[in-house]
Design goal:
With about 325 residues, this protein is an alpha/beta fold. The chain has 2 domains: about 5-10 and about 205-310, GMP Synthetase, Chain A, domain 3 (2-Layer Sandwich); about 25-190, 3-Layer(aba) Sandwich (Rossmann fold). Helix content is about 35%, strand content about 25%. It has 9 helices and 10 strands. It has helices at about 40-50, 90-105, 120-130, 155-165, 175-185, 210-225, 255-265, 270-285, 305-310, and strands at about 5, 25-35, 65-70, 75-80, 110-115, 135-140, 170, 235-240, 245-255, 290-300. The strands form 2 sheets. The protein has a 6-stranded mixed beta sheet, with helices on both faces. Strands 1-10-9-8 form a 4-stranded mixed beta sheet, with helices on one face. β8 (about 235-240) and β9 (about 245-255) form a beta hairpin. α6 (about 210-225) runs antiparallel to α8. The longest helix is centred in the last third of the chain and has 18 residues, at about 270-285. The two termini are about 25 Å apart. It is a peripheral membrane protein. Belongs to the TRAFAC class TrmE-Era-EngA-EngB-Septin-like GTPase superfamily. Era GTPase family. An essential GTPase that binds both GDP and GTP, with rapid nucleotide exchange. Plays a role in 16S rRNA processing and 30S ribosomal subunit biogenesis and possibly also in cell cycle regulation and energy metabolism. Pfam families: KH_2 (PF07650), MMR_HSR1 (PF01926). This is GTPase Era.
Length: about 325
Amino acid sequence: MNDTAATPEGASEGEGGEHGEPSGQRCGLVAIVGRPNVGKSTLMNALVGQKVSITSKKAQTTRHRITGIRTLEEAQFVFVDTPGFQTRHSTALNRTLNRTVQGVLADVDVVLFVVEAGRFGLDDAKVLALLPENKPVLLVANKLDAVTRRAEMMPWLKSMQERRNFAEFVPMSAQKMPEVERLLGIVRPYLPEQPWFYEEDALTDRTDRFLAAELIREKLFRLTGDELPYTSTVVIDKFEEEGHLRRIAATIIVERDAHKGMIIGDGGERLKRIGSEARQELERLMDCKVFLELWVKVRSGWADSEEHLRSYGYE
């Protein structure tokens, strides 16, 4: 096992109390599902109005069930961002991620099935086949701004309607806030009339410790591009609060020595940049000073080890 340290960078979990039930109050669980890289995490962050789920161009960025909360007037939307359903590899990690997706679908009130506008492939079809028949499914055709010939959308939509009787069809771009607000309005009637699950100002049910690991992993993937296999993860070793300061120590876990070298970079420059960008975003998110220390360790075969997955926090 090889351990490498970086130069240190830089110097609440909501339980959700039950409220009284004013007239017309609604609350429900909304799953965001789809194959990898259709924009689920970007959509989640736009719907919540703040970053709660990490994004990158690398497939399988999201690995956990992430809950984002948005309360608008009488309605509380509890969005659940899921890993992209994996159909190509059968590691223990992918089996765990797929169980997470299936577990989410059993609990929710409504499903947002996210695809790329004008595209529908075998991986999309495999996800569609998993969606429950007894729950409303809204087809969200994301990345509409990338469609150059809008006339081709009508035959595509007709073909989609033949695949399933979707409750709604919503063409949109998650990058455009008016379209995000329109989606919220479309989802609202599908929320059951019941008390809210969380306080009005809650944004997520995840802890700052969890969000720190996710943000470091996002910077890791963004700054290594396609060089680094997705079988890399981040473990928080220390998270201490000292007034307006957070002291965080984290370990980046990889499977091979070569992967470690990719992360460290020449003279440790890439690892320093990962730490610097993660620290700056954590300071914005937590509104405090952050002291961040990163390490890189090799753990061969961790992604195919149920024991390692449990120890690294995979559900």
